[in-house]
Amino acid sequence: MEHKKKLIHVTKMPIRWGDMDAYGHVNNTVYFRYMEQARVEWIEDMQVVVRPGGAGPVIINASCTFLMPLTYPGNVEVRTYVGAPGRSSVQTYVEMRLEGDERIYAEGAAKVVWMDTQTGKSVPLPDHVRAALEAE
Q1: DSSP assignments along 10-41, one per residue
Q2: pLDDT per residue as tens, the chain (136 positions)
Q3: DSSP code of 83?
Q4: What's the CA gap between 96 and 7, in Å, rounded?
Q5: In b/e form, how buried is each residue of 6-34, taking b as 16+ CB within 10 angstroms?
């Protein structure tokens, strides 16, 4: 199913030797680390401070489809997209490429929900976050 999405963040990071497994390609768990790092950078770019005791973003699900294996050496480019924001959440989508190659090596998704860490309940997206998500 195709979703309407907007590119909101691009980052590059090195593929480390230790990211690979016995099969000679990046281990499946590491792709989630690449997505996590990209998500953290995007959240920090919005001036969101993640701290215990406050409200902040959490993910409630994450997925990844592995299309072609990434291998060392190289840099992975992670492109993060968002869908339309809801009251307290936004769906994110990720495409991972090998730097210099436009083919998609993996694609993923995660639903980000703003949560009050003291109550464990969702809260509305902060106004400045909503504005960033809705900006053209």
Answers
A1: EEEEEPPGGGB-TTSSB-HHHHHHHHHHHHHH
A2: 456 899 999 999 999 999 999 999 999 999 999 999 999 999 999 988 777 778 899 999 999 999 999 999 999 999 999 999 999 999 999 999 999 999 999 999 999 999 998 899 999 999 999 999 988 6
A3: -
A4: 13
A5: eebbebebebeeebbeeeebbeeebbbeb
Q: Which of 21, 27, 31 lies closest to 78 in space, CA to CA?
A: 31
Check if the beta carbon of residue 82 is closer than 8 Å to that of residue 57.
no
Tokens of 122: 């969702």
Q: How far apart are CA 17 and CA 24, in angstroms?
A: 10
* pLDDT value of position 84: 92
Q: Can you count the helices (H) and strands (E) in the chain?
A: 2, 6
Amino acid, single-letter form, for residue 128: H
CA distance 19 to 16: 5
| Residue bearing tokens 């907007």 | 6
Alpha-carbon distance 84 to 86, whole Å?
7
Residues 6+ apart with CB under 8 A from 27: 19, 20, 21
